[in-house]
Structure formats: structure tokens, C-alpha cells
UniProtKB/TrEMBL annotation:
GO terms for biological process: cilium movement. Its main location: cytoplasm. This is WD domain, G-beta repeat protein. PANTHER family: DYNEIN AXONEMAL INTERMEDIATE CHAIN 4, DYNEIN INTERMEDIATE CHAIN. GO terms for molecular function: dynein heavy chain binding; dynein light chain binding. GO terms for cellular component: axonemal dynein complex. Keywords: Cell projection, Cilium, Cytoplasm, Cytoskeleton, Repeat, WD repeat.
Length: 73
């Protein structure tokens, strides 16, 4: 599966000033991966942007579910 960059902001980050940033790649970097113990065809991937994506080996064109991160204060 190719991880795509998400453009959804985490809760609590909407009013923060945006910095200008150049986009080098449209793909995201997966920083961690874990497989489900009960169903090895299901796995989750953590990305450098914060969201965690629930994926399936059977449906490799889209995420099953996306969990947004939180802001730590």
C-alpha cells in the first residue's frame, strides 16, 4: 500500500498560524506498523504526520479507517 499524505488537521490545531512549507512528495512516511494478532490481514500504520491508518492486505487501495492524533500540551 502507498501511504498518501493527509490534509486533515488534528483537533485543536485549526487556529494555529500556518507556515509556508514545500511539499517534496505526495506520499507519507510510515514510522511504525503493527499486525492484528487475531486477523493477520489487518494492520495499522503510524505516519510522520500523526494519523494512524487501519489497513487491510485485501483492500490495498484505501484505508479501512483513519485515527487522528491529538495535541499534547
Amino acid at each position: 500500500m502507498v501511504l498518501k499524505r493527509s490534509y486533515v488537521s488534528a483537533p485543536g490545531t485549526v487556529n494555529k498560524p500556518k507556515r509556508s512549507e514545500s511539499l517534496i512528495s505526495r506520499t507519507a512516511f510510515g514510522s511504525c506498523m503493527a499486525f492484528n494478532k487475531r486477523d493477520p490481514s489487518i494492520y495499522v500504520v503510524g505516519t510522520e504526520e500523526g494519523p494512524i491508518h487501519k489497513c487491510s492486505c485485501s483492500y490495498n487501495e484505501q484505508y479501512l479507517e483513519t485515527f487522528l492524533g491529538h495535541t499534547a500540551y
